[in-house]
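In the design runs reported in the main text, the only information available to the sequence generator was the tokenized backbone. The following block is the verbatim input for one such run; it is reproduced so that readers can re-run the procedure and compare outputs position by position.
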């Protein structure tokens, strides 16, 4: 059974940014349901066509589709490979299903207040060639790549507010769920990117 670490937090908390760095340090492979879904939409697969409307609206894609996606990807990995989940699980049923698929070692919760989220999301840009995540203010891209940067379809101010409501209604209950299992470790995601990374490393290595 795979050992796994979960990154939990609201949209724009920095899960993707930190997942890349933690993967480099820990050797864990990143499994991001958001990235997998965006690839399915770009490739116009059956899953992508089913998921697109939910994603554009800032709502969650139904659990059965997500669990099918996760199951298919886990089946392709060496069972000894450690995993870093980014954006999964997002509902209690997803979390319960995950406990049967993986050994959950810990859940790293990145805490950021709602007021900071909108500015982070609206200013986010991505390099489609490398997948690197930038921000117009907090993490500017080098001049050599600025011409090719793209903005996510769901990174509008209106959609972010729906995504935040969705988070509070359906995903935030996972904080208590994982806390009751003794798996939760929280860090202050309102600090700069390097400090959040340092705190996550400390949280991961604390006994
Ligand atoms: P997903 O892609 O997972 O989006 P999300 O959870 O909304 O998270 P984001 O990717 O927006 O933010 P992040 O926390 O990764 O932040 P980032 O590092 O980029 O999901 C998209 C959609 O897919 C969902 O809405 C849903 O429809 C569907 N979906 C996905 N998984 C699902 C599931 N399991 N079940 C059902 N549906 C699912 O950082 C954001 C910005 O802030 C960047 O510009 C970055 O440079 C900047 N930044 C990062 N850290 C800092 C910092 N410390 N200080 C200042 N700026 C920072």
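Verbatim output:
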């Amino acid at each position: 059974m795979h050992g796994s670490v979960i990154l939990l937090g609201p949209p724009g908390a920095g899960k993707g940014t930190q997942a890349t760095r933690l993967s480099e340090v820990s050797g864990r492979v990143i499994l991001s349901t958001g990235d997998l879904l965006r690839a399915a939409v770009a490739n116009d697969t059956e899953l992508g066509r089913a998921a697109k409307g939910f994603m554009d609206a800032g709502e969650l894609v139904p659990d059965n589709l997500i669990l099918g996606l996760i199951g298919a990807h886990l089946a392709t990995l060496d069972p000894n490979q450690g995993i870093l989940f980014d954006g999964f699980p997002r509902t209690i049923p997803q979390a319960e299903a995950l406990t049967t698929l993986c050994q959950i070692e810990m859940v790293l919760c990145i805490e950021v207040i709602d007021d900071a989220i909108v500015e982070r999301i609206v200013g986010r840009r991505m390099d489609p060639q490398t997948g690197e995540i930038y921000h117009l203010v907090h993490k500017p891209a080098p001049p050599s790549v600025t011409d090719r940067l793209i903005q996510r379809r769901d990174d509008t101010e209106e959609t972010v507010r729906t995504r935040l409501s969705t988070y509070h209604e359906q995903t935030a209950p996972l904080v208590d769920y994982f806390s009751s299992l003794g798996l939760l470790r929280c860090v202050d995601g309102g600090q700069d990117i390097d400090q959040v990374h340092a705190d996550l490393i400390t949280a991961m290595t604390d006994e």
